Amino acid sequence: MPLTKNEIRSVCVFCGSAFGKDPAYKQAAHDLGQILAGAAMRLVYGGGGVGLMGETARSVHESGGKVLGIMPKFLQNREAIVDGVDTRIVSNMHERKMMMFEESDAFVVMPGGVGTLEEVIELMSWRRLDLHKKPVIFLNINHYWEPFFALIRHTEAEAFTPAVFLDTFFSVDTVEEVLPAIARAGLHTVDIDTRRRV
User: Which secondary-structure segment (H or E) carries 138?
Assistant: First the structure.
């Protein structure tokens, strides 16, 4: 059974370990951190202090919110841990992703590279297999995710993905829309007209 609005306590953010070219990405990471802290939602993330990951974590922490970072041992020197936040060191990437999943009630996908894609594709695959019903929200800053959405629509058009799968994840354009989208996606009954299909 999907979580209700009041049961969303921890939000996992998948995002890049770089800032990207558009300054809007970094600003969105900072703003999202403030919003999560203000809503008393714990951030769960990959544990690094670099790029959008680090910006989001520092923003939550500096705004008085709770943060859980999950860092593979081999990345400790490459993606320096953010000072002052709860960080768990794990053995490998698989353990990191599983712990991030288990510790989170919902997921937000910000701009990122192949690492972010790998994380969200696995999450979406699990959803396709009915292994979870946790909300998945893409923060589509300046249309960053449109090429990815086009690919997913192509798999549906070519009959490799059922059309109903396109209703299992959602896209918003602004940080302010993230928490309302999580709340709507987490309700047991969702009015299809309130969803933004990709």
Answer: strand 136-139
- Which CATH number do you get for residue 181? 3.40.50.450
pLDDT of residue 79: 83
Domain that holds residue 139: 5-190
pLDDT digits (tens, 9 = 90+) for 52-110: 999 999 999 999 999 999 999 999 888 888 889 999 999 999 999 999 999 999 999 99
Please, are residues 156 and 166 in contact by the beta-carbon 8 Å criterion? yes
Residue 139: inside a domain, yes or no? yes
| Under 8 Å between Cβ of 9 and 35 | no
Is the predicted pLDDT of residue 3 greater than 60, yes or no?
no
- Is the C-alpha dihedral spanning 52, 57, 63, 65 positive or negative? positive
CA angle 29, 32, 35 (to 5 degrees): 155
Residue at 196 is within a domain: no
